[in-house]
Specification:
By secondary structure, this protein is an alpha/beta fold. Helix content is about 50%, strand content about 15%. Helix 10 packs antiparallel against helix 11.
Amino acid sequence: MSTPETEANPLLLDQQGGRLYVTFNRPERRNALNDAMLLALENLITRLESDHSVRSVIVRGAGGHFCAGGDIRERRAQTNDSRPGVDIAMERNFRAGRMFLRLANLPQTTVAVVEGFALGGGFGFACTFDITLVMHNVQIGMSETRIGVAPAQISPHVVRRVGLSNARYLGLTGRRINGAEAVRMGVAHEVAQSTEELDARLASLLDDIDACGPMACSATKAIMNRVGEMPLDALIEYAGCRFGELNRGPEGVEGQQAFLEKRKPRWPSLG
């Protein structure tokens, strides 16, 4: 049963320097995505799209699970409340799709730390974030077809992550995979055998992210996200312009000077 605290705070935020730790906070529902959490995510994304004080976003789930997908009870109620010309559940699906797209295009480096269940929309998060770490015993997959609906809004992100063949395999069977299989398919990048190892891998990863220029990472994401969406000649022009801006800018100057002086760079954008 939901508590007043989790209903009021479906996301817990903890900013530590340039790192923002985000916790899905509906443990009693295995952090299933409902309207309140979707709204909180939309508001957070709006903030992050222009917040240069955050360079990495780390997302975990409370209670030992990442995210068990959409809240089926809420969706059923929305479906029952629909009437001619008004389909509340479908409109929520559109909102979720826009949220996933905006999440994929955030300027920050995003990291998913997956434990327990990551099904449906939770699997979509795992495939949308830049980097995904998993526990060995996770259960993740595209479970929508097993309840008679399509993984409509996560499918583009799953295909981009694991390829069409693997996406079909997962989507048309509803099978769940574990951490090792997730790494093999390309869903995840690292797998841990214990919570201690998972935390150690996360700490090492964040140190490596911090060693890179924040603006350089943001530009790298923007260039990569345009592959296949922009004509190659236009992409070459776009990428070259971004390179020139960075190379002439304070981050490029500092990074290359630090390399020549054999010291760690002090990224200007971090103050």
